[in-house]
Design goal:
The protein is of the alpha/beta class. It has 9 helices and 10 strands. It has a domain of about 180 residues: P-loop containing nucleotide triphosphate hydrolases (Rossmann fold, 3-Layer(aba) Sandwich), CATH 3.40.50.300. The protein has a 6-stranded mixed sheet, sandwiched between helices. Strands 2-1-4-5 form a 4-stranded antiparallel sheet, with helices on one face. The chain is globular. Keywords: ATP-binding, Nucleotide-binding. This is ATP-binding cassette domain-containing protein.
Length: about 270
């Protein structure tokens, strides 16, 4: 069982986001702590993807504050969020298919050869492979050899490589969060279980994980807490041990009223 830190890795307070006259997010508060997995649920148009884009720096909120490790941040781009330790794993995974696993895992921080070859920017392939193996072993990931091209991997193996790469970057920052957008959407049962196990291990290593998904069984398998959005507002924020499938579906559809402490005065 992961030990959940008292200081949030990522906190959003009073987040509004307007698209013209449409309010996509309305006063949303959200936080995830190191060692915690928070699942974000909601129907289509509820604001899940929009909230994820605010967290990842793809959209700037119209109002509200973002903090990483207790420090206020102003994300103007996904680069700002990544530099702060907030890593996003998109549904398309953003892997280089023709490159091998080691290259994908060390992308953007590749070691170079020592001496004159390093001055010329020649990469140290052996060091890249050693580092990739060390990172995968730390996450207890059993996948293909690190020399295998990504284009030869299964869907589940690709997802594991993408998750591992981002997990390492969050770990190295010492704060922040790992954001997952529908991580099991295109996977079969066995591959889904592999990804579920990896998410749990990442939390055990002290990584704050946010999972946006429609997959309720995934939430109850990996999450510590569930946050439900409905029409841009947060209607539930509850520990997984204090709710059930019927309650969550009720909040998603609107059949169940918001939690009393989340009811807005203007509703």
């Amino acid at each position: 069982m992961a030990v959940i830190s008292t200081t949030p890795g990522l906190r959003l307070t009073g987040i509004d986001l307007n698209y013209g006259f449409v309010k996509a997010l309305d006063g949303v508060d959200f936080e995830v702590h190191p060692g915690e997995v928070v699942a974000v649920l909601g129907d289509n148009g509820a604001g899940k993807s929009t909230l994820l884009k605010v967290m990842s720096g793809a959209h700037r909120p119209s109002a509200g504050q973002i903090e990483v490790g207790g420090t206020p941040k102003d994300f103007r781009s996904p680069r700002d969020a990544a530099d702060a330790g907030v890593q996003m794993v998109y549904q398309d995974l953003a892997l280089i298919d023709a490159a091998d696993i080691a290259t994908n895992l060390t992308l953007g921080r590749e070691p170079v050869r020592k001496g004159p070859l390093g001055w010329l920017g020649i990469l140290d392939k052996k060091a890249m492979r050693r580092e990739a193996r060390r990172e995968l072993e730390a996450l207890r990931v059993t996948t293909a050899p690190v020399t295998r091209p990504v284009e030869m991997l299964s869907g589940g193996q690709r997802q594991v490589v993408a998750l591992a790469r981002s997990a390492v970057r969050v770990s190295s920052s010492g704060t922040g969060a790992l954001l997952l957008d529908e991580p099991t959407a295109a996977l079969g049962y066995a591959q889904t279980r592999q990804v579920e196990d990896l998410i749990k291990r990442m939390a055990e290593r002290g990584i704050a994980v946010v999972v946006v998904t429609h997959n309720l069984p995934l939430c109850f398998e990996v999450a510590n807490r569930i946050v439900v959005l409905n029409r841009g507002r947060k209607v539930a924020d509850v520990p997984i041990t204090e709710t059930d499938n019927d309650a969550v579906v009720g909040w998603i559809t609107g059949a169940k009223p918001p939690q009393p402490d989340l009811v807005r005065a203007d509703v």
